[in-house]
Design brief:
Rossmann fold, 48% helix, globular
């Protein structure tokens, strides 16, 4: 059914419910999980400004280091459960939504699994969630857990 499932990790503190659901789907269908972490930087045409944002000690470099450690831990745990998984950190000047959709298409994913970030009333109107934006803009199926 599925060959590759994309699981964007939006928050460090609680990726487990989304990962558990995606892992069960992968186990049932024999799919590979692609755990993705997107780090956004300020868009710029200036080479120096681009480089300074990702140099050692910068916010993006620190986020990359912690994300790589998180992804290594997650993929190791999934492999002990017999699930094929790999992690990828993407540093981009695109929005998170664009980066997630682009990565899913680039890697030939069949499905995107995201946390359901429900908001009600004015919060939904003002702060529309990342999950909702991805599900609206993606041509791929999206499951909200």
């Amino acid at each position: 059914m599925y060959r590759q499932i994309l699981v964007p990790l939006i928050r460090d503190d609680q990726p487990e419910p989304v990962l558990d659901h995606a892992a069960k789907l992968a186990q049932c269908s024999g799919a590979e999980l692609l755990c993705l972490r997107v780090i956004t930087v300020v868009p710029s045409d200036d080479y120096f400004f681009k480089q300074i944002q990702v140099e050692e000690g910068s916010r993006a470099h620190q986020a990359r280091t912690s994300s790589e450690a998180l992804l290594a831990r997650i993929t190791a745990e999934l492999s002990t459960r017999g699930i094929s998984a790999r992690g990828e950190v993407v540093i981009t000047d695109k929005t998170e939504v664009e980066a997630i959709i682009h990565s899913a298409l680039e890697h030939g994913c069949d499905l995107i699994v995201l946390p359901n970030q429900t908001r009600a009333g004015k919060g939904r109107w003002w702060f529309n969630s990342l999950s909702e934006k991805v599900s609206r803009r993606s041509s791929l199926p999206v499951i909200l857990v």
